[in-house]
C-alpha cells in the first residue's frame, strides 16, 4: 500500500510517523531492521529518536540517504571492486575522506594547473574559491545523477552571458574533476559525492544487490519528500513496488527546496504516477510569480563564483544603507541548513558595521519556510 500525507507542521508529522513506525514494529514482533525511516538530515533523525519509546527492538533504521549508502558501500565493497576497474588499490573497504580533505586535494590541483599551465586565466577569483565552486558542483551533480564528465559543459550552457565567457575554462574544470575522481578511486578513497556515484552506478545495477535490498526493506517511510534529491527519488522509485507499505510526507509549502537544487518536477511526477492527489498540492510560488509582481526586480548574473555572489549581495546591502534605506526594510532570503553561507554573510556585513539578525536562529521563527 502507498500512503501520502501533506502535513506542514513538523511536530505533527513526526508524531504521525512515530505512531505508524511503532505500530509496524509491534505488528512485526519488534523486528525493526526491515523498517526504514528516510530522513533529510541528522537533526530530523535526532528528533525521531528522542520521541521514540520502545521496550524492545532490533536495529533502528532511522537514517539519512547518505548514511545509508555509506554503510551499503562498506558492506558490498567487493561487488563494486568486481565492476569498477578504476579502483586499483585492493582494499577490504573504502577509505572515506572528509570534506576538508576533499577541498584541499582539489585546491592543490587547481593551484598547480594555474601556476604551471595557466588554467582559469580569465577568472579573477582565488584558487580556493574556484576549488570550492568545483567541489560544490561535483556534489550537486552526484545528487542529481548527472555524469561528472559533463559538469563543465552543463554549467557553461546554463549561463545566459556565455557568449562573453571563455568556454575553455569550463573544459579545464572538467579536467580537474576527472583527475580528482580518478585520484580518489585509484587509491580506494571516496568522498560523499563518490559514495552516491558508486552506489547508483554499481550497486544499484547489480542484480544480486537489488535482490538483497528488496528483501532487506519491507516498509519505507519518507520524512520529507519535498527535500529529496534525484538520487533519493531514484532509490524510492526502485523500492516503491516491492515494499509492503510506503508512507510519504510531502510538504508543498516548502518552496525553499529550489534553493537546494531539488528537482520539484521529478518529485511531482512520482507523486502523480503513484498517488491520487489534488492538483492543489502542486501549486507553489515560482520565479514567474516573482517576476510578474508589481515591483522592480533586478537580476544580477555578473558573478562567476559563489564567493563573488556573496560579496555582491553584501555590497548591495551596504549600498542600500548608505543611500538611506532603513535596515528594517532589507531582508536576505537564503537557503536553510547552510551555516557556512550564514556565517560568511554575517561576517562581511559586521566587518562593515552592519548588525545582522538571523531569523533561522530564532525559535519563534524557526518553522517559517523562508527562515
Could you characterize what this model shows?
By secondary structure, this protein is of the alpha/beta class. 50% of the residues lie in helices and 7% in strands. The protein contains 15 helices and seven strands. The protein has helices at 10-27, 42-51, 65-75, 77-83, 99-117, 127-143, 151-158, 167-186, 192-201, 207-216, 230-239, 264-274, 287-291, 306-322, 339-351, and strands at residues 2-5, 35-39, 61-64, 95-96, 189-190, 219-222, 245-249. The strands form two sheets. Strands 1-7-6-2-3 form a five-stranded parallel β-sheet. Strand 2 (35-39), helix 2 (42-51) and strand 3 form a beta-alpha-beta unit. Helix 3 packs across helix 9 (192-201), helix 5 (99-117) packs across helix 8 (167-186) and helix 14 crosses helix 15 (339-351). The longest helix has 20 residues, at 167-186. The two termini are 35 Å apart.
Amino acid at each position: 500500500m502507498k500512503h501520502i500525507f501533506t502535513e506542514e507542521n513538523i511536530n505533527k508529522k513526526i508524531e504521525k510517523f512515530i505512531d505508524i513506525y511503532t505500530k509496524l514494529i509491534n505488528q512485526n514482533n519488534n523486528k525493526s531492521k526491515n523498517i526504514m525511516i528516510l530522513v533529510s538530515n541528522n537533526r530530523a533523525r535526532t528528533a525521531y529518536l528522542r520521541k521514540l519509546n520502545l521496550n524492545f527492538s532490533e536495529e533502528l533504521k532511522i537514517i539519512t540517504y547518505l548514511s545509508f549508502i555509506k554503510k551499503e558501500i562498506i558492506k558490498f565493497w567487493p561487488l563494486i571492486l568486481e565492476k569498477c576497474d578504476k579502483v586499483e588499490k585492493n582494499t577490504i573497504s573504502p577509505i572515506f575522506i572528509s570534506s576538508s580533505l576533499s577541498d584541499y586535494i582539489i585546491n592543490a590541483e587547481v593551484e598547480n594547473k594555474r601556476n604551471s599551465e595557466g588554467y582559469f586565466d580569465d577568472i579573477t577569483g582565488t584558487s580556493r574559491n574556484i576549488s570550492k565552486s568545483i567541489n560544490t558542483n561535483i556534489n550537486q551533480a552526484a545528487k542529481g545523477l548527472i555524469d561528472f564528465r559533463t559538469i563543465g559543459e552543463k554549467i557553461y550552457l546554463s549561463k545566459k552571458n556565455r557568449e562573453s565567457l571563455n568556454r575553455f575554462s569550463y573544459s579545464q574544470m572538467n579536467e580537474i574533476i576527472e583527475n580528482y575522481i580518478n585520484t580518489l578511486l585509484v587509491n580506494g578513497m571516496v568522498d560523499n559525492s563518490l559514495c552516491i556515484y558508486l552506489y547508483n552506478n554499481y550497486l544499484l545495477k547489480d542484480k544480486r544487490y537489488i535482490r538483497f535490498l528488496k528483501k532487506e526493506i519491507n516498509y519505507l517511510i519518507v520524512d520529507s519528500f519535498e527535500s529529496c534529491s534525484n538520487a533519493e527519488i531514484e532509490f524510492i522509485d526502485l523500492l516503491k513496488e516491492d515494499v509492503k507499505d510506503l508512507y510519504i510526507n510531502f510538504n508543498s509549502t516548502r518552496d525553499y527546496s529550489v534553493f537546494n537544487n531539488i528537482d520539484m518536477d521529478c518529485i511531482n511526477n512520482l507523486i502523480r504516477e503513484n498517488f491520487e492527489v489534488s492538483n492543489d498540492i502542486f501549486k507553489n510560488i515560482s520565479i514567474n510569480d516573482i517576476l510578474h509582481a508589481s515591483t522592480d526586480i533586478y537580476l544580477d548574473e555578473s558573478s562567476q563564483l559563489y564567493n563573488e555572489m556573496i560579496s555582491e549581495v553584501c555590497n548591495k546591502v551596504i549600498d542600500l544603507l548608505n543611500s538611506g534605506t532603513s535596515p528594517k526594510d532589507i531582508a536576505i532570503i537564503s537557503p536553510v541548513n547552510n551555516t557556512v553561507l550564514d556565517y560568511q554573510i554575517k561576517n562581511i556585513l559586521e566587518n562593515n558595521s552592519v548588525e545582522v539578525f538571523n531569523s533561522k536562529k530564532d525559535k519563534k521563527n524557526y518553522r517559517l519556510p523562508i527562515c
